[in-house]
Every structure is written in structure tokens, then in C-alpha cells.
Amino acid sequence: MKGKNEMKKEKDIICSKCNSKIPSDSKFCFVCGEKVDKQEEVVVETVPHRGRPKKIVDVDSVSKNDEIIKKEEVKEEIKEQPKVDNNVPPVNNIGSTNKSSFESKKKYIYPVIAVVVTFVLCFGAFTCFYEYYLKHLVIETTKREVTVTDTGISEAVEKVYDSVVVVESYVKNQLYATGTGFVYKVDGDKGFILTNNHVIENADEIKVVFTNNEREKVDLVGNDSYSDVALLAVDKEEVISVAEIGSSEDLKIGDTAFAVGAPLDSSIYAWTTTRGIISGKNRNVEVTTATNGFYSNSYVMEVLQTDAAINNGNSGGPLCNSNGQVIGITNMKLASDKIEGMGFAIPIETATKIAERFIKGESISYPYIGVTVADAKATYMNPTASGVYVQEVEKGSPADKGGLKKGDKILKVNDVEVENSSFFKFQLYKHDVGEKVRITVLRDGNEKVLDVTLGSKGMNT
Predict the structure, then answer these.
(1) From 228, 248, 279, 421, active-site residue
(2) Does residue 96 have an active-site annotation?
(3) What is the pTM (predicted TM-score) of this model?
(4) Which carries the bigger pLDDT value, residue 183 or residue 91?
């Protein structure tokens, strides 16, 4: 009826979790997603009022005598909520939480993926580089080293081995010295063997032993004490092998070298092979020899230096390069408690040049100028004395004709300074008989340059 209180009663549901109003036909709270098990009825009563209308909330579950029913004024209007479609599922807060969590992790995931991808690419690139280039490069280098240092030396030793002989020197049918030699050429019906002069010096009979242990008597073709070279001859049929001659001039410091010889007891250590390197070239080594045990003779030899072991009995044997070619004749070593690994060899060019002259029947003569010289010796009165002084000048000799006088101090031969008498002789012997040399002397405090034509009269005294 009009004019009377109008009552509009609507049944709505209140969420027990968030107190939100839910349509009666909904089973889930559209705010928090809570399932509604218990329905509550809300009565909305409209009462006429002179002032602003007020909304009164009655709850069926609350007692009628409760203070809330006493028309408590609701200060906040209950906002009318939009209708919710029953077919729409409830909002899931867990999904939104996962999305935000994923967004926060994105800034860490991408850098990690980038690092992993970069590592895989780099590893793959290095693997390809090693497999197709570096691996093969190392193998090739190793093969080259093995070929040069190992298999090469064994083949080289085999190449020269059977040309080497043991040299035995006899005096009155008694063996008094042994050394080494090697067959360097065959000419006609003879095989020629090179060795050192000091190995066969003073012997009245010489024999050689080949690698098949056959012992044969040989002839002395020629020998020279200054160069320390001797040449022997044996029947061609007895020769097992001939050594290949190389070149000492082509050698470089550090090249592989090996010696074959009969050190110490030749019956035990014959054909011993020792290996080393070329330690030096063109070494000027002063040698002192005794003649008949009465006096010494000093001279300088130009030799090759090697650290291949050379011992007594190795003298006269071949010094070879890594190709098995003979580059020198081992002839001496420096022996001292303070020295180790210093052996020397005559350059093969020097030895073969002299040997060819022996085969042709030519005698070996050296330049002669006709002077007697002596080395200055330091004394208490003159502690710094040094140099080479002329003691005697043979009348009519090349020196006499050239103007040398007793008391002259010899300073130079051509442009090479002279240190002592052995070196003075060494410089003269570099020239041939008939050549003219310039000798610089100090006389009365003044230097004089004299031209001397070299003569021939055997070795100087």
C-alpha cells in the first residue's frame, strides 16, 4: 500500500572470509575466490525518514535482542557489486603470484643463458682449431726432431763404421802404441788409410785391424809431424768399406758430430762411437811435442773443437757429421782436472791435401826465412815483458835479405799481430814457398815494415 513503510527483502550471501556480498546464485566469492558453504540472508529494509535515509542491516544469525539490530547506522554504504557470470571461474591469486615471481626471475635467467651459449660456442671453436690444426702441427714437429736426432745418427754410424780400422805400431816386433785410422780412398790396387803422425811415429812395423778382425800389414806412404798427418797403404782386396769425405767448411756451431775409434784397450773398446756437437771452428791451439824425449817443439794448429768424447786411442779416427761424412781427423784433447769435453780434430781439407801430395810422391816443405826466435819472459826487473824477439839471423837467408836483424821485436806478419813464437810460425806456414810477406818489427823504438820472400828448407828450428 502507498504511504506505508515499504519493505524490500532480497536474499544475498556474505563471504565468511572477506565479508563481501555475493549474488545468491554464485558459489564462489568473486573477490577472494573462497567457496561459500553457508548462506546468510541479508534483509534490506527501506523506512521513510525525514532526513537522509539510513540503511539498517539485520543478520539472521544474530539475536534480535542484540545491539546491532537496534538500527545501528551504517557509516559506509554498501556498494552494489556488478553481476558475476556463473560460467566465469573464480579468480586465482596463486596464478598472479607466479606471474610476478617469473617476472622477477627474468633478469637472472637471460644472463645465465647468454653465458652458457658463449661458453659452448668458444669450446666448439677451440675443439675445431685443435683437431684440424694444432694437433697435426705438434705431430709434424715431433717427427722432424726424431728423424734428425735419432734415426739419422744410427744410419750415419753404420755408413762409416766398416771403414774404420785399429792402427797398431810395433818396435822390434813389440806392440808399443795403438790408435785409429780410416780408409779414405781406393786408387788402383791400393786402399789408402789416414791417421795421425804421432800414432805411427818411430814405428818399424805397422799393422791395421778391420771390423772383421782381420789383421793386415800396411806400408807407410808419408807422414808430417807439423800437420800430424800420416798416410798408410793396404791391398785393395782387404778393404771392407771406404769412408765418404765431407766438408768442415760447411759446418755450423752446434751441428751434430760423432767420433769412431779405439780408446784405451783396443781389444775391448775398438770401434767405440761417441756423440757430441761442433763446439768451435778455426781454433788456434798451441801444441807442444817432444822429439826423442830430449827437447820440446811448440807450434800452433788450426783445428775443429768438439765435445764428443775423445780419449787415448781415438787419435787418427774420423770425426763425422750427422750424414756419416768425415769432416776431420781426431788428434788431441785438452786434459785437466778443470777441463771437460774439449776435443780437437784436424779439418779434413787439410788432411786430404797433404795425403794427395804423399800419393804423388811429393815432399812436404814449409816456408823458411832463416831466423831463430824466442819468446820474451817476464822477470822481476821487467814483469810485463812479452812478444817475439829475433835471436839469430842466418847469413844469406830470406830474413837476412829482407833486412831482419838480431834484437828486432816481431810485431806483425802482414796485418796479423804476433803473440808468441808458435803463433809467428803458424802465420808463416799459412803461406807457400815463394810468396812475399810483410813483417813489422820494433827496432830502437821505431816500427819498420820489411818485405821478406819465403824460402824452403824444411821446418824452422
Answers:
(1) 228
(2) no
(3) 0.62
(4) 183
